[in-house]
Amino acid sequence: PRCPPAPGRVTPARLRPYVPACHPAFLGLTGDAAAISRAAREFRVIFQKQSGATPETYTVDHTSGSFIFDPQGRLRLFVTAQQSGAGLEEDIRLLLAGR
Which region holds residue 96: left if phi is over 0, alpha if psi is between -120 and 50, else beta? Predict the structure, then answer.
């Protein structure tokens, strides 16, 4: 499936078909503008609405990457597409070893 609809249009019903397509264990989160802004600040990600030809056709620029948590639920890594596989493998091995 395509990317989910942009913030402001994202409802649990609209997220439902997209999230499991990424991975069955993933959770989809949404909320009002204040909740989304709080979550973005907490995870240190950005998002910015870009106007389209009509009010309904806007896009959203956003941080792209994956968050990796340890077994205690603590955020340990933020992985971007530019990170090397070897570097990521070493980081994950250290996490699995409890470091």
Answer: alpha
